[in-house]
Amino acid sequence: MILTYHGGACVKASAGDTTIVLGPVSKGSKSFKPANFGANIAFISLNHPDMNGTEEVRGRPRKDDTEGAVNGAGKEPFIITGPGEYEVSDISAAGFSSGSVYGGHELINTIYSIHFDGLSVLYLGACGDAQLPKEVLEMDAPDVLILPVGGNGALSPADAQKVAVKLEAKIVIPILYDDKTLKTFLKEASSEDVKPVDKLTIKPRDLAGKESETIVLSV
After folding, report:
1. Average pLDDT of 129-135?
2. Which of 105, 140, 177, 208 places its Cα 20 to 30 Å from the Cα of 34?
């Protein structure tokens, strides 16, 4: 699996010919650049322009690909927008409701547990409540935890670290950060020396011995 960060709460995960996107930024966002790539599956955690850009991840046909079937090119993505259980191709996922006041408004945020390419990914979206749903807390520890750390109605850096400790993920990836909140989160996580990387390429065998390793993906 290859993970890249595209600003806001938007993370792209690719493996083989399949691309999923978490929280794609829409053209209506006033804070972040809209997503600009095709995806097979789009997970929308919050109905807000910063992370509901389904139009922006529609497949774009490639001139050299008449079938248009490479990494979502030329295809309409399967869109997942709320709680429930889902099976799409070889990907299974479950969504759970959580609270958020992202942008100053009370909204329902969906936390997604996703199994893709042999890895378990827990995506918190714009979750603003450190008291996670019971179902989430009772799950096995995720391989990869993607969580907001920038406040603004989502988790603050301090609360994000408390949640990360509870969930005991092998790898922790912060989103929805700016320079200040990222610095604060890294200090809370005792990871001040972590340097941003352009992408994370990971396989199940790479997780041996990892415990709450923070990885910052640059935009």
Report:
1. 94
2. 105
pLDDT at 89: 86
Token reading at 7: 């600003």
Q: What is the DSSP letter of 217?
A: B
Structure tokens at 215: 């990885």
**Which of 182, 102, 117 shows the shortest CA–CA distance to 149?**
182
pLDDT at 71 (0 to 100): 47
Nearest residue to 76 via CA among 44, 121, 39: 39
Beta-strand runs (E) in 101-201 = 107-116, 119-123, 144-148, 171-175, 200-201
Q: Alpha helices of 134-178 — where are they, by DSSP H?
A: 134-137, 157-167
Q: Please state, in angstroms and rounded to a whole number, the distance separating the CA atoms of residues 188 and 205.
A: 28
> CA 144 to CA 56: how far, in whole Å?
25
Q: What is the pLDDT of residues 10-19, one digit of tens each?
A: 999 999 999 9
CATH architecture observed for domain 2-214: 4-Layer Sandwich (3.60)
Q: Which residue has the tokens 């995506």?
A: 123
